[in-house]
């Protein structure tokens, strides 16, 4: 992904970039269909695009929750999507020894919010030479993310993205402080708004995280209005039956209309 960070920040269209896809890789057929559908939309709207899919979900409330179809199988699907559609791909890693493994298949390594202070994990990701997208912990201020950026850059990698996904608000809700987006941009890195996980309702008694997907466009519109470089949106053709985080995902049928509205906002502020 040579110079990709420069490309996504300096597009001819002036658009934000998009990280989008299913929460988890559920299988090859559905992943390919989702990728093709999103790429058709982003090509039409001239939005730089990175396909997102987790090869494994390590952070689940219940032990019986879906975690994945197998690491290598899921990573090979991500590799195929990148190769056949010519788009960068991003996936989460959870432990230091996963960094090199995942880097062999994808272009961007994502550090989950709960792990954003894990020094060994950040350094291992940095050493792969891949772009590293660090999600801001729900328990951290925007300003404190400068230390995550410093760890990665001091390890010899200046290809860093920061992603906001809200702050803990009580035990079962999150709230977005949009002041954090320009503050993190002040560290000299692209800043993304996670429009789906910021609407989670964690710690439900059922052991399944809830969400408010009807507010995804609201979160996205506000983020674009304050100048976010990119958006992170999990999307699925059948969220109710998705195997992971269905309560937070945007229905794939709504993606084009949502992005079209966001482009209008972007055009109004640049």
Short description:
This protein is of the alpha/beta class and 270 residues long. Helix content is 34%, strand content 18%.
SSE layout:
Elements (H helix, E strand, L loop, with lengths): L3 H6 L7 E5 L6 H18 L3 E4 L18 H15 L3 E4 L6 H5 L4 E4 L7 H9 L3 E5 L10 H9 L5 E5 L2 E2 L5 E2 L4 H6 L5 E4 L5 E2 L8 E2 L4 H10 L4 E7 L13 E2 L3 H15 L1
Helix pairs in contact: 2-3, 2-9, 5-6, 8-9
Give a description of the structure.
The protein has 9 helices and 13 strands. The protein has 270 residues and is of the alpha/beta class. It has an 8-stranded parallel β-barrel with strand order 1-2-3-4-5-6-9-12, surrounded by 5 helices. Strand 2, helix 3 and strand 3 form a beta-alpha-beta unit. The longest helix has 18 residues.
- Spatial extent as radius of gyration: 17 Å
Structural class estimated from helices and strands: alpha/beta
Residue-averaged pLDDT:
91
Principal-axes geometry comes out as globular
**Oligomer type:** single chain
Specify the biggest β-sheet: 8 strands, parallel, barrel
The DSSP helix count reads 9
Instruction: Count the E strands.
Output: 13
The N- and C-terminal alpha carbons lie at a distance of: 26 Å
Strand content: 15-25%
Task: Provide the low-confidence segments as ranges.
Answer: none
The percent of residues in helical segments reads: 25-40%
> What is the strand arrangement across the widest sheet?
1-2-3-4-5-6-9-12
Order of helices and strands: HEHEHEHEHEHEEEHEEEHEEH
């Amino acid at each position: 992904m040579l110079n990709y960070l420069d490309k996504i920040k300096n597009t001819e269209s002036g658009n934000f970039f998009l990280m989008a896809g299913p929460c988890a890789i559920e299988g090859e057929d559905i992943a390919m269909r989702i990728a093709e559908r999103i790429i058709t939309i982003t090509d039409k709207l001239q939005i730089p695009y990175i396909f997102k899919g987790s090869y494994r979900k390590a952070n689940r409330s219940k032990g019986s929750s879906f975690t994945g179809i197998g690491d290598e199988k899921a990573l090979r699907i991500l590799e195929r999507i990148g190769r056949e559609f010519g788009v960068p791909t991003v996936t989460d890693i959870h432990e230091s020894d996963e960094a090199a493994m995942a880097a062999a298949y994808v272009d961007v390594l994502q550090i989950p919010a709960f792990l954003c202070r894990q020094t060994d994990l950040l350094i291992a990701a940095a050493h792969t030479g891949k772009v590293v997208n660090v999600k801001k912990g729900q328990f951290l201020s925007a300003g404190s993310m400068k230390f995550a950026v410093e760890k990665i850059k001091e390890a010899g990698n200046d290809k860093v993205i920061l992603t906001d996904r809200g702050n803990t608000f009580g035990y079962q809700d999150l709230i977005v402080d949009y002041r954090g987006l320009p503050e993190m941009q002040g560290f000299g890195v692209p800043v993304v708004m996670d429009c789906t996980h910021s609407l989670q309702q964690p710690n439900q008694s059922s052991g399944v995280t809830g969400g408010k997907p009807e507010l995804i466009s609201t979160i996205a519109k506000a983020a674009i209005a304050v100048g976010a470089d990119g958006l992170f949106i999990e999307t699925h053709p059948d969220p109710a039956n998705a195997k992971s985080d269905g309560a937070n995902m945007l229905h794939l049928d709504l993606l084009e209309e949502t992005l079209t509205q966001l482009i209008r906002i972007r055009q109004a502020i640049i």
